[in-house]
Amino acid sequence: MAGLFDLISADDLCAKLDHDYRRVKADPADVFAAFDFIVTAWHLLEWRHQGSAGKVAREALCTQYPILGLCEHLCVSGKHYEPTNPKHQSVMGTFRDAAWARGAWAPGVWAKGFWKDGLVIELAGPAKVALGDQLAMEKFADLIVAFWRGPGGCPAERHLSGSSM
Predict the structure, then answer these.
(1) Mean pLDDT score of the chain, rounded to an integer?
(2) Separation of alpha carbons 129 and 20, rounded Å
(3) How far apart are CA 30 and CA 32, in angstroms?
(4) Is 162's pLDDT higher than 50?
(5) Share in percent of the chain as helix, strand, coil (round to 5)
(6) 48 vs 153: CA distance, rounded Å
(7) Contact in structure between 75 and 42 (CB atoms under 8 Å)
(8) N or C: which end of the chain has fewer CB within 10 A?
């Protein structure tokens, strides 16, 4: 089996990345949107540079672009709870930077964006050297999309044809 449903090419996964990016930008505190974006962004590397033949290219890109190593570390943490591979050295931790604890107010009491609420990534290793101590999820998403819209990445923003996305 190649792909999944209408996601059958790297360009289709680019369309999913655009979809997930719009969700992150619409609500940078949405953990589900953040997770979907991170997983898609990381696996796009595997779709662009497939299998064992693409392994050297994937590793070279991760070395050259610390944002990709950060993306991998976040993806593995999200999928497997805690990364065990010692190569994952980009993330010190993640946290919600909010004025109130989740659930302190009933939904809809305050307009979206009225109070500070965002997701933050604390960086370590090469990511910290390249990108600083912390990245807000929204800034991380901007950097990843900028990478994927560069040469050899994704075509301009598009939608998966025939999809409800």
Answers:
(1) 79
(2) 27
(3) 6
(4) no
(5) 50, 10, 40
(6) 8
(7) yes
(8) N
Alpha-carbon distance of 157 to 146, in angstroms, equals: 11
User: SS3 of 104, please?
Assistant: coil
Nearest-5° Cα angle at 49, 59 to 19: 105
Half-sphere exposure of 153 (CA within 13 A, CB side): 20
CB 133 within 8 A of CB 125: no
Q: What is the pTM of this model?
A: 0.78
pLDDT of residue 104 exceeding 80: no
The DSSP symbol for 30 reads -
Rounded Cα–Cα distance for residues 93 and 152 (Å): 31
What is the distance between the alpha carbons of residues 147 and 17, in angstroms, rounded to a whole number? 12
Q: Which two tokens stand for residue 125?
A: 């290793």
Residue burial 69-105, b: 16+ Cβ < 10 Å; e: rest: bbbbbbbbbbeeeebeeeebbbbeebeeeeeeeeeee
